[in-house]
Amino acid sequence: MPVVAVYETEQELITYLHGYLGADITASFNLVDNPPSPTYQQAVNQALRMLAIQTVDQVAGSRMELAAHIAIWRLLRHSYTLRFNFSADGGSYNVGDVWGHINAMLAQAESEGIAAGVINSGQGSTVLKTKIGW
Amino acid sequence: MTLLNIPADFQWMRQVQDSAMHDQCRLVFRVENPGPYNEPIVSFDPADELIICGYDPKGGKYQMSSTEVVSYDSVFRLPHGTILDQRGGLILEMQAGAAVDPLSFELVGPPDYGPTAILVRARSVTDGRF
């Protein structure tokens, strides 16, 4: 994937996010690239809000990407909030492992975002600030 | 442990359960047609499509009536909503994504309709019915 200096359209950023998450994750969360799923559009909107800008071409592509990483992992965490481990019908499923992975990825994204000045340290999640795990 | 008990929970729990069914089988339906003397002729009709299932080769015994106890040699998980023919059976054709020599099973006892899947006890069919 070529480095993007500046994203011209939101669809370009959505396509990038789709590739960033990878096929396994996008399939697990039922995220589709075209037409854009509501989740991607929400991530773009939240990233714009995070950077206090109106359109994606107002900042460098790298900053836009970092903000979008944080936004997408926050949204995926939100969608997994009410999941729990369960055993039923001959199977035992540790759905909480996915919750752990999401939080780890969010902590990493926020850490990179703080280092690059996309968000300040006060805006990081509790997981990142206290490192208590989950 | 269940925190909530609402339809939305069952929906994602069934999706998780389905995603852990790594085998595929073909349902078999029992068909009865009148013969030349109007006597019932029984045959077995395998479905056209393979469906996902979870094959667990773990046997046991099932008490069919007050005196009859039947051994079964495996338990299958099937997706919630699967329509079975209790007098038919199923043919296991894929295991963990790889084609295997088909194994035929008849069903033992009624299916258990759990919250996330249907569990059926099954035993091998060796008389060549299907």
Q: Could you report the average pLDDT of chain A, rounded to the nearest whole number?
A: 86
Principal-axes geometry of chain B comes out as globular
Q: How are the strands ordered across the major sheet of chain A?
A: 1-2
Rg over C-alpha atoms of chain A, rounded to the nearest angstrom: 16 Å
**What's the multimeric state?**
heterodimer
Instruction: Tell me the major beta sheet of chain B.
Output: 6 strands, antiparallel, barrel
Largest interface: A-B, 11 and 21 residues
Q: Provide a count of the helices of chain A.
A: 6
Uncertain spans of chain A, ≥5 residues at pLDDT below 50?
128-134
What composes the largest sheet of chain A? 2 strands, antiparallel
Strand content of chain B: over 45%
> Could you spell the SSE succession of chain A in H and E letters?
HHHHEEHH
**First CA to last CA of chain B: what distance?**
40 Å
What structural category do the secondary elements of chain A indicate?
mainly alpha
In terms of DSSP E residues, the strand content of chain A is: under 5%
The tally of strands of chain A reads 2
Mean pLDDT of chain B: 92
Large-scale geometry of chain A: globular
| SSE string of chain B, helices as H and strands as E | HEEEEEEEEE
Strand arrangement within the widest β-sheet of chain B reads: 1-3-6-9-8-7
| Percentage of residues in helical conformation of chain B | 10-25%
